[in-house]
Write a structure and sequence with these properties.
The complex is a heterodimer of chains A (641) and B (275).
Chain A: H1 13-18, H2 20-23, H3 68-71, E1 79-88, E2 96-103, E3 108-112, H4 119-127, H5 129-132, E4 136-144, E5 147-148, H6 154-158, E6 161-164, H7 177-187, H8 192-205, H9 221-233, E7 239-243, H10 251-268, E8 271-276, H11 279-282, E9 289-294, E10 297-302, H12 304-308, H13 312-315, H14 322-329, H15 351-361, E11 373-383, E12 389-399, E13 403-407, H16 414-422, E14 429-434, E15 437-438, H17 444-448, E16 451-454, H18 467-477, H19 482-495, H20 511-523, E17 529-533, H21 541-556, E18 560-564, H22 568-574, E19 577-582, E20 585-591, H23 592-595, H24 599-604, H25 611-618, H26 624-638
Parallel strand pairs in A: 3-8, 3-9, 6-7, 7-8, 13-18, 13-19, 16-17, 17-18
Antiparallel strand pairs in A: 1-2, 1-4, 4-5, 9-10, 11-12, 11-14, 14-15, 19-20
Helix pairs in contact in A: 7-8, 7-9, 8-9, 9-10, 18-19, 18-20, 19-20, 25-26
Chain B: H1 12-15, H2 18-34, H3 38-54, H4 59-83, H5 87-92, E1 97-102, E2 105-108, H6 109-135, H7 138-147, H8 152-181, H9 192-223, H10 242-265
Antiparallel strand pairs in B: 1-2
Helix pairs in contact in B: 2-6, 2-7, 2-10, 3-6, 4-6, 7-8, 8-9
Classes of the chains: A alpha/beta (641), B mainly alpha (275).
Chain lengths: 641, 275
């Protein structure tokens, strides 16, 4: 059976492979070539070109990478892949093909690629999970510190490579932060006093020393990640490997995480590898090289500047930084001498005028929604324990057919709000109205026919082996006759692009397809409102676009959609309106462009200013918010939404 | 959100290391388990009630546990009487009938003494166990178990259970609510078979999301060197203070005392007032 179009790896990927010789990936770019100019605010001023690398965001005197940069070429590679090929026993084809890659001590490398490109597998090879936990066939060689990894076991490797995994909650093995940091020392039989002393020292480096006694339930996502980081640094490893460090963090915490990683790289002179697909967020601080993978091959090995001004990002399904997209919309050609890799180094040169001209052509139109209200909250307050308020005096009104995002940091009350809407919890005060009618007396089951909730992790919803049964479940539980169920399930599977799989077992589906199954199993009940919790978490650009375009289709059918999200791109691109919660209060209910350009809202809700706003300033556009709104409108028109 | 309601109060008992408490618990338990002398059993029981009082455990915390145990030991006593009403006579070698119950079944003084002793033996272990569970920080469980010779991998399994129990509890609640929204009826109105099937609709997603979790944890543990050596140390292990040694000495003395009473006073595990 043919996989549907949205599962096929982009046909464009093949092009990337043929570009290989042009980027000379076998000889790494000497990082000394990557000159970073420290820029404060606007980068237009011609700064003197320094031959030493300077860590961004620090005082110019802190030349942490001087010295190491110059001596890269003389040193031996710390990680050396030589014609390395790996195939999982469970797979028909190798996941990594003929990898040749040298990484030198003290480098900071970003490994980028779409889902399934082999970037996580590459990480697993370096930290020893392959072949220790995941078995397969290896040919060629991989040496770390000059030792072939096949001669090493995972424990020896863990003394050289420290890995911070993606899920900062799931990898938290201790009952307190202190215990978690000490975990590696415990396994090394370090004595009590020495252990406590080292834990305290490392915890200070990541600013966790006052929280050593806290349990994971008391820590925020960022604090848990810092705990994990301390937990691997305590081993005094030379190489730090971060596997998608941004996946579960809100924008501000993600930004902070990138800063911490950079500081550690500078201060402790570690070799740092970051595996991510969110390019713009990682490039908040500088990296020495970007290695791009696709279909198990290295398709590029170059500096951030060279990458961003090439066509590789589009070809390989990686989202380019938003300011680059805006420059391209404005008709400016992005060239390497503009130093476009980082917003802080970008020199708009003549492009500034083009951006200004474009801005004049895209004056934003005020959004209008003439439809009547579908759901509203009036003066809603709620508390779990009657002491600590979780939601206070929440008021909003969502109109039929809207697509709204609900944002705010963890613990701001977003999930609680969705629970109140679904009737899982009862509000203490206030009224929830559905089409003007008080919902107070509606049960969970009755509300589910009006409001459907799709949880973040599809595995938390799927309870049947077969797709058909899973989608039919809600109807069967409502005792709908089987002859009526079949056409309804078929119809909804068709909408969700799952019609060819109607008789398939769910276990054969990819993550994105499972997500669709869970959406289908909710849609089959014909709700008028759909609430989705982080629908695109952990998805690469292509899958993200697939899921979101699918939601747009559903939205066009008349379903009102509320998205709970951390993803600012999602907010900007897909939801004209954003409701922002912070500390249980509604602090903004306005256009996404306003939310992401208002410093106070950004601060309170742990968001991050969009780089479009910076670009507007660089191009001397006074009203940055209007520029962002214009960009959104332009893009929407372009994509015909 | 903890498996046992550990209450963090500052008492001399709470200050003891978890390992000390486990060792004392084992000494005292063996002391009452070995001896069938009612006087010894009652003394240990009195001692443990005093300790319970010192550690400021409130009755509300242990009420349900006490009720369960009482039901268990009373049932146990009744059943063992009807299975072997003459066991006391066999042990003590004399026969003092109190009352004829029915048929050939008599209640004897010997049987009464034997059963009362046994009942108090069980009853005296409960406060000891509760003291250990409720005054030991969950973080210290694993290190205490490993301290008395349980393999560290097994001990760590205990720690992981404590760590992930609340997570799984939360998953369960979320899944249950989401399934209820799809129309799942968990109320008592549903028929038994339906309720069983409905429970599966929650348990299956729970298992799959838990398996995901397990893969992640075991990777995280491998990557940080868990299981490489024969031994490991524990961050939470408390260092022994003078009080720890005193507590262990005291419970060792009680254990020794119990052995001595049996060896030199009673010349058997049983206290026999009938000869």
């Amino acid at each position: 059976m043919a996989a549907p179009e949205w599962r096929q790896p982009s046909a464009l990927c093949a092009v990337g492979g043929s570009l290989l010789p042009f980027f000379g990936y076998k000889t790494p770019t000497p990082p000394a070539r990557n000159i970073v100019i420290l820029s404060l605010g606007r980068a237009a001023a011609p700064a003197p070109i320094s031959t030493q690398r300077v860590c961004m965001g620090r005082m110019p005197s802190a030349t942490c990478r001087a010295g190491t940069a110059r001596s890269f070429m003389e040193k031996q590679a710390i990680i050396n892949f030589d014609h390395f090929t790996f195939q999982y026993y469970s797979q028909a084809e190798p996941t990594l093909h003929d990898i040749n890659l040298k990484i030198y001590p003290g480098e900071k490398i970003l490994i980028i690629g779409p889902s399934g490109s082999g970037k996580s597998t590459l990480g697993h090879c370096i930290n020893g999970l392959i072949p220790f936990a995941y078995k397969g066939e290896i040919s060629g060689s991989l040496t770390i510190h000059g030792r072939d990894t096949r001669q090493l076991n995972i424990f020896e490797l863990s003394k050289m490579v420290g890995t911070v995994l993606q899920d900062s909650d799931g990898q938290f093995v201790g009952l307190t932060a202190g215990e978690d940091i000490a975990f590696a020392l415990e396994n090394d039989c370090i004595q009590h006093d020495a252990m406590h002393e080292r834990v305290h020292k490392v915890a200070e480096m990541v600013d966790m020393h006052e929280l050593l006694g806290s349990s994971p339930f008391e820590l925020s996502g960022g604090q848990k990640q810092r705990t994990s980081l301390a937990g691997v640094m305590i081993d005094e490893v030379d190489i730090l490997l971060f596997d998608e460090p941004l996946a579960n963090l809100d924008p501000a915490t993600g930004k902070k995480a990138i800063e911490i990683i950079d500081d550690i790289h500078c201060d402790a002179s570690k070799t740092v590898l970051i595996i991510e697909h969110r390019l713009e967020d990682v490039l908040h601080r500088d990296v020495d090289r970007v290695i791009m993978l696709n279909e198990g091959r290295i398709v590029a090995d170059l500096s951030a500047h060279d990458l961003v001004c090439s066509d590789l990002l589009r070809q390989n399904g990686i989202r380019e930084p938003l300011y680059i997209t805006a420059l391209k919309y404005a008709g400016a050609s992005v060239t390497c001498d503009m130093q476009p890799g980082y917003i802080t180094t970008l020199k708009t040169n003549s492009a500034g005028a083009q951006v200004r001209a474009w801005y004049k052509a895209i004056q934003p139109a005020p959004p209008r929604n003439p439809h009547p209200s579908i759901i509203s909250m009036e003066h809603i307050s709620f508390s779990y324990d009657g002491v600590r308020p979780v939601l206070q005096d929440i008021n909003f009104d969502i109109r039929e057919g809207e697509m709204v995002s609900l944002v705010g940091k963890n613990g701001a009350g977003k999930s609680t709000l969705s629970k109140l809407l679904c009737g899982f919890e009862k509000e203490d005060q206030g009224i929830i109205r559905y089409r003007g009618e008080d919902m107070r007396d509606k049960t969970i089951k009755e509300r589910a026919e009006l409001i459907g909730l799709v949880m973040q992790n599809p595995n938390q919803m799927i309870s049947k082996a077969m797709i058909y049964d899973e989608v039919a479940l809600g109807l069967r539980l409502r005792n709908v006759p089987e002859e009526e169920i079949t056409p309804r399930v078929e119809k909804v599977l068709k909408i969700c692009g799952l019609a060819p799989f109607i008789e398939w077992p769910i276990s054969a589906l990819s993550y994105g397809q499972k997500k669709r199954v869970t959406i289908a199993s909710i849609l089959v009940l014909d709700p008028h409102i759909l609430i989705l919790d982080e629908p695109t978490a952990g998805q690469d650009y292509r899958h993200y676009t697939d899921i979101m375009e699918f939601l747009v289709e559903i939205n066009k059918l008349g379903v009102t959609i509320i998205l709970i999200t951390h993803d600012m791109h999602l907010m900007l691109e897909y939801t004209p309106r954003a409701i922002v919660l912070a500390g249980g209060k509604l602090i903004a209910d306005t256009a996404a462009a306003f939310v992401l350009t208002d410093p106070q809202v950004i601060e309170e809700a742990n968001l991050k200013e969009t780089s479009l706003f910076n670009l507007a300033h660089m191009a001397d556009i006074a009203d940055g918010t209007a520029f962002v709104q214009g960009f959104i409108d332009y893009e929407r028109k372009l994509k015909n939404r | 959100m903890k498996l046992f309601s550990y209450n963090s109060v500052d008492t001399p008992i709470h200050r003891l290391s978890g390992l000390t408490k486990l060792i004392c618990f084992l000494f005292l338990t063996f002391a009452v388990m070995y001896s069938y002398d009612l006087r010894v059993v009652l003394l240990v029981m009195l001692f443990s009630i005093v300790v319970l009082w010192v550690s400021r455990i409130r009755y509300a915390q242990i009420r349900s546990m006490i009720i369960y145990v009482l039901i268990f030991i009373v049932t146990n006593a009744i059943i063992s009487f009807f299975f072997a009403p003459e066991f006391g006579v066999e042990i003590y070698g004399t026969r003092h009938e109190i009352v004829k119950l029915f048929g050939h079944v008599y209640l004897t003084q010997e049987q009464l003494l034997y059963q009362v002793t046994k009942l108090f033996k069980y009853a005296s272990v409960i406060p000891l166990g509760m003291i250990f569970l409720l005054t030991t920080d969950p973080s210290e469980f694993a290190s205490s178990l490993s301290g008395v010779g349980v393999h560290y991998k097994a001990s760590y399994a205990v720690a992981l259970t404590l760590r992930y129990f609340p997570d799984i509890q939360r998953d369960y609640r979320d899944i249950s609510l989401a399934q209820q929204a799809r129309g799942l009826d968990l109320s008592h109105k549903a028929k038994f078979m339906d309720r069983f099937k409905n429970a599966l609709l929650i348990v299956i997603p729970l298992i799959f999301s838990t398996l995901e979790r397990i893969e992640l944890i075991s990777n995280a543990m491998d990557l940080r060197g868990f299981g490489k050596g024969k031994q490991r140390t524990w961050y939470t292990a408390k260092k022994f203070s003078r009080d720890d040694y005193l507590a262990m000495l005291l419970s060792a003395l009680i254990f020794g005392g119990s052995l001595c009473v049996s060896a030199f006073l009673n010349h058997s595990r049983f206290y026999n007032p009938f000869i």
